[in-house]
Write a structure and sequence with these properties.
Largest sheet: 9 strands, mixed
Strand content: 25-35%
Structural class: alpha/beta
Strand order of the largest sheet: 4-2-3-5-6-8-9-10-11
Number of strands: 11
Number of helices: 6
Order of helices and strands: EEEEHEHEEEHEHEHEH
Shape: globular
């Protein structure tokens, strides 16, 4: 399990601004196909133009929800995994949420751009680095997988730049940006054939038309 034990937030983390939460199937990256409960938190300082969750950017739009209420929603389902995502979830103190989920035997996965200091303890960390704001070195070293979104040719160089920062056993994924996937996917396929240390991640939940 990877994480950081210190409280590096100005809040206690006992309440979090939650955009939405739902039980579904993970559609991207290493854990594709696993049933998981998604906890989407508000707030993001990166704000990529192609983001498919722009509604999460403004934290003030969402009321704070108590951690015990969030966990209670998870426990109403058969979920064995919880995915904490955003926005940028590490903009918050995630220690209480992770601790509470783990007390109930739930494995916790993190989806992060890596731009904020770590908090919480996770069973799997997916780092998706963004050009607008580079990930912190500590998050690169904690990552179990790196998932680089490819929207243009230059993103392959960006992928390699970040590959050099993660641990040797980190899983490496290239994922086409959804709106230009027809153009970029053939290029990704050729790149992976030439650089087989990389694998392809697809947004399978969009093909299956599930949240």
């Amino acid at each position: 399990m990877k994480g950081h034990d210190s409280d590096n937030r100005h809040n206690t983390g006992m309440e979090l601004p939650m955009v939405e939460s739902f039980y579904t199937v993970q559609g991207e990256g290493y854990n594709t196909g696993k049933a998981a409960y998604f906890i989407r938190l508000a707030g993001c300082s990166v704000r990529c133009g192609w983001c498919d969750a722009k509604q999460t950017w403004e934290m003030s739009r969402y009321p704070a929800v108590k951690v015990e209420e969030i966990v209670a929603r998870v426990l109403e389902t058969p979920a064995r995994y919880a995915v904490v995502t955003g926005g940028e979830p590490l903009g918050h103190n995630l220690n209480p949420l992770c601790d509470s989920l783990k007390m109930h035997g739930i494995k916790v996965f993190l989806e992060t751009s890596g731009t904020e200091p770590a908090s919480g303890t996770f069973d799997w960390i997916c780092l998706s680095p963004k050009r607008k704001k580079k990930p912190l070195s500590e998050l690169c070293l904690l990552a179990d997988e790196i998932k680089v979104v490819i929207a243009r040719e230059e993103d392959f160089e960006w992928a390699e730049e970040n590959r050099a920062k993660v641990s040797p056993d980190c899983k490496l994924y290239l994922q086409p940006e959804w709106n230009c996937s027809k153009e970029m996917l053939p290029k990704i396929i050729e790149y992976v054939k030439e650089h087989p240390e990389w694998e392809i991640s697809l947004q399978t939940h969009k093909f299956m038309e599930i949240p």
